[in-house]
């Protein structure tokens, strides 16, 4: 038996479903709790079954398993670093608003991904301009200004 | 009724406004089809936030046109650059690219594009003809039947779209659970809002769909890096293009067979275009006088998959409109779009909004023809789009996704929800869960609950004792039996071959 990422995820699902069913049982009307209880229990059972299947599945050959693990690890690290950029973009937007965060994100992120300075600046300027034109000027939507400037 | 609706559909179809939005859809579909690793899901989800400014007559032709032509764009990259523009175009590469390497790129392209157009238009015409036959059946559906129709849709998407059946079902159920957040109309009770006014209306569909589909795809682009397409410039001559077009009309039976496979696969929810292309490629090879040449650059190997992948759209649209069950993962986003523009997916589309449904089928026909007219002369220039490096594409897509999600309701909390569901979508993708299943469960969840309590109120706990409901239950059980049986059969064949 081996604990994989999917196994941990299924365990999280099961824990969440226990909490969801317990919370739903406290609801006032039977019509409100019917679906949450039925669906939550179903997901709990199916997750348990899938967890058992995942953990008892025959192991692949050692070399193939190692290759798969290392490939997953490298893609996870890539997703985490790129996801961190996205989170940073949203955080800066929350503080300073889209009009400041957008060009900052585009310049720094495209540079980080390996684009030349000039290309990064042109892309940032053009995209920010188009976004401003489409949303603010054409659609009359005020882009979020951020908690510091609002 | 049908004739009146058809007349109205023709009038709608001739409106310049519709052609403007359809044109935008064709352009977007071709661009996203040509750029490898992007695909229909990303293209359709990127447009969702903009739909609030549009009417149903603008939004749906835009999205349907994207779905109709995306494989046509993908064929260009597959044949000329040897890289599948979209996943279902993979079968086209097998013979399309070898033809280009032999100097027959023009012929392959002509055959692929004209084959796509014939498959796409033919099956859309068939869908149009089937509407009068489906209409009486759809009009007999009651709330009880709708409960099982929704369940059937989720089960089909969860079970048949590949991967683990259990993970597919967990995904569908999770989607249904997500739809329960917020104010419940039946009892006026708010569920899982934890006192937040923002959650009173539930999660915003745009933020959830963009998070689950678009964010993981955009991050994938950034992680993979580089430019997927090789930098070769190919000149395509008219002589070759005409020869390819003639090949399509010379292989009439192959065109019919492949389009029919595409249509049938499209009608059955959850199977997807990839299956239709490889099945029709396999059948073309089986029926060929020279099967050993397949894979070395034969024109039939291009015609078969291209007819099938565009042919799938007619069938998929019919199921999506008539029953509210998406024929494919892209259909899930069409359903979401219907809800966003105030339509109820399901039989109402063939009763109250029949003219709009027929208009959409005409859009499939027109989009296929226009796309080929654009691609034939411009194909060699269009391949340059495929060379846009992902280090530029990924930041652009992420920026558009975040800004557009905010703009949908001018609510910054939607951006936070986007980020959360982006992480959820990424985890689901990495661990082989079924993302379309989650979104479909979410889209249809409220309808499911509404029909369930309506059926219980009208017919009591034995509400399912109706012929149609029982047939639907039998189909659902059949899917559960068929899927493991098919896998066991395939495993046995592999063992026997070994």
Describe this protein's structure:
The complex is a heterodimer of chains A (150) and B (498). Chain A is mostly helical. In chain A, 80% of the residues lie in helices and 0% in strands. Chain A is built from 5 helices and no strands. Chain A has helices at residues 5-25, 30-56, 62-96, 98-112, 117-138. In chain A, helix 1 packs antiparallel against helix 2 (30-56), helix 3 (62-96) packs antiparallel against helix 4 and helix 4 (98-112) packs antiparallel against helix 5 (117-138). In chain A, 29% of the residues are buried. The model of chain A has no long low-confidence stretch (mean pLDDT 88). In chain B, strand 1 and strand 2 form a beta hairpin. The model of chain B has no long low-confidence stretch (mean pLDDT 85). Chain B is globular. The longest helix of chain B has 35 residues, at 105-139. A two-stranded antiparallel sheet of chain B has the order 1-2. In chain B, helix 4 packs antiparallel against helix 13, helix 7 runs parallel beside helix 20 (467-497) and helix 11 packs parallel to helix 13 (300-323). Chain B is mainly α and 498 residues long. Chain B has helices at 2-13, 16-34, 39-47, 56-81, 90-101, 105-139, 143-160, 165-179, 205-224, 238-250, 252-267, 273-287, 300-323, 329-340, 348-351, 354-382, 390-409, 412-430, 435-459, 467-497; strands at 182-184, 189-191.
Give the tags.
A: 150 residues, mainly alpha, 80% helix, B: 498 residues, two-stranded antiparallel sheet, 2 strands, 75% helix
Task: Give a summary of the structure in a few sentences.
The complex is a heterodimer of chains A (150) and B (498). Chain A is mainly alpha-helical and 150 residues long. Helix content of chain A is 80%, strand content 0%.
């Amino acid at each position: 038996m081996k604990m994989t990422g999917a196994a941990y995820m299924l365990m999280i699902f099961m824990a969440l479903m226990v909490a969801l069913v317990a919370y739903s049982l406290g609801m006032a009307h039977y019509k409100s709790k019917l679906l949450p209880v039925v669906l939550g229990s179903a997901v709990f059972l199916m997750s348990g079954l899938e967890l058992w299947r995942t953990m008892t599945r025959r192991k692949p050959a050692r070399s193939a398993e190692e290759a798969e693990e290392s490939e997953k690890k490298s893609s996870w690290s890539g997703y985490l670093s790129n996801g961190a950029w996205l989170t940073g973009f949203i955080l800066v937007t929350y503080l300073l608003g889209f009009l400041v965060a957008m060009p900052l994100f585009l310049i720094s992120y495209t540079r980080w991904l390996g684009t030349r300075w000039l290309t990064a600046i042109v892309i940032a300027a053009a995209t920010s301009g188009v976004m401003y034109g489409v949303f603010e000027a054409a659609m009359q939507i005020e882009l979020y200004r951020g908690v510091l400037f609002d | 009724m049908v004739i009146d609706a058809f007349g109205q559909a023709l009038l709608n179809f001739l409106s310049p406004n519709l052609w403007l939005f359809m044109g935008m859809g064709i352009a977007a579909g071709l661009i996203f089809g040509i750029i490898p690793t992007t695909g229909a899901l990303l293209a359709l989800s990127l447009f969702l936030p903009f739909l609030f400014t549009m009417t149903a007559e603008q939004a749906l032709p835009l999205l349907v046109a994207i779905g109709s032509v995306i494989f046509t764009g993908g064929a260009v990259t597959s044949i000329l650059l040897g890289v599948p523009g979209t996943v279902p175009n993979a079968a086209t590469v097998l013979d399309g690219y070898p033809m280009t390497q032999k100097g027959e790129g023009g012929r392959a392209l002509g055959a692929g594009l004209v084959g796509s157009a014939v498959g796409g238009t033919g099956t859309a015409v068939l869908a149009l003809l089937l509407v009068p036959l489906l209409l009486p059946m759809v009009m007999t559906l009651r709330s009880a039947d709708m409960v099982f129709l929704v369940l059937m849709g989720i089960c089909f998407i969860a079970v048949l779209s590949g991967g683990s059946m259990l993970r597919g079902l967990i995904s569908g159920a999770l989607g249904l659970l997500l739809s329960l957040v917020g104010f419940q109309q039946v009892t006026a009770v708010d569920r899982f809002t934890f006192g937040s006014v923002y959650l009173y209306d539930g999660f915003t569909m745009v933020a959830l769909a963009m998070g689950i589909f678009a964010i993981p795809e955009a991050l994938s682009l950034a992680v993979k890096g580089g430019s997927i397409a090789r930098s070769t410039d190919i000149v395509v001559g008219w002589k070759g293009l005409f020869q390819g077009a003639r090949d399509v009309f010379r292989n009439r039976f192959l065109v019919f067979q492949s389009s029919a496979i595409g249509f049938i696969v499209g009608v059955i929810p959850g199977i997807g275009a990839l299956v239709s292309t490889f099945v029709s490629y396999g059948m073309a090879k089986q029926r060929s006088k020279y099967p050993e040449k397949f894979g070395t650059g034969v024109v039939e190997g291009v015609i078969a998959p291209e007819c099938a992948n565009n042919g799938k759209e007619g069938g998929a649209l019919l199921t999506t409109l008539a029953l509210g069950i998406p024929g494919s993962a892209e259909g899930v986003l069409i359903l979401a779009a219907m809800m966003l523009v105030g339509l109820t997916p399901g039989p109402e589309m063939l009763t109250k909004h029949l003219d709009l449904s027929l208009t959409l089928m005409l859009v499939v026909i027109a989009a296929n023809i226009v796309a080929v007219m654009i691609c034939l002369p411009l194909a060699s220039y269009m391949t340059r789009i495929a060379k846009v490096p992902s280090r530029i594409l990924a930041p652009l897509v992420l920026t558009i996704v975040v800004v557009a999600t905010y703009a949908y309701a001018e609510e910054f909390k939607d951006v936070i929800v986007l980020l959360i569901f982006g992480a959820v979508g990424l985890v689901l993708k990495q661990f082989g869960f079924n993302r379309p299943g989650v979104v479909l469960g979410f889209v249809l969840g409220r309808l499911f609950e509404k029909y369930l309590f309506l059926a219980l109120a009208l017919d009591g706990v034995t509400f399912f004792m109706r012929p149609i409901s029982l047939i639907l239950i039998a189909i659902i059980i059949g899917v559960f039996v068929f899927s493991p049986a098919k896998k066991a059969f395939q495993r046995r064949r592999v063992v026997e071959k070994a």
